[in-house]
Specification:
Elements (H helix, E strand, L loop, with lengths): L1 H34 L5 H9 L2 H7 L1 H7 L2 H10 L3 H31 L2 H19 L1 H36 L2
Amino acid sequence: MTRIFKPFAFLVAAIYFLVDAAFWMIARPVARLLADHWVFDRLRTWIISLGPYPTLALFVVPVLVLEPAKPVAAYLTATGHVVSGLAILGVAEILKLMLIERLFRISRDKLMSIPAFAWGYGKFGQARNWVESRSAWQLMRRLSLSAQHAVRRYVLDIRASRKRERLSWQSR
């Protein structure tokens, strides 16, 4: 039975890591930039002042606002507007991930004070640990990290060559 599911698990892990790496390579720097911006200080203060249950309800807002973008993106893609559909899907997913991740970071302790949330988060952690212990997951994680390092090296090499080019032009 495991022989049948192993290739499927490998494929799911591969797709997950590719999508995850693509979204987080874009979302993480943007989230850091936005999180440190002074405009969001008042919003952060307001979120911190909320109680546990209103904070939990706040998690619904990004999902309700950005989740309808998926059917719109699917419709656009199906009607031949592939670039527009993928762009809408990408932007909506990145925004949703950034907002939910940031909300969770700000209010983790408060949310963990809700027994049902803490229980669900514990079960989620157990499921994640089980999936991450699978050999297919670990292989895809190694391949994903190798690909990320290769891209970083390539970008750094390009930057270094451009800098050398500029310096050689300046010395002429």
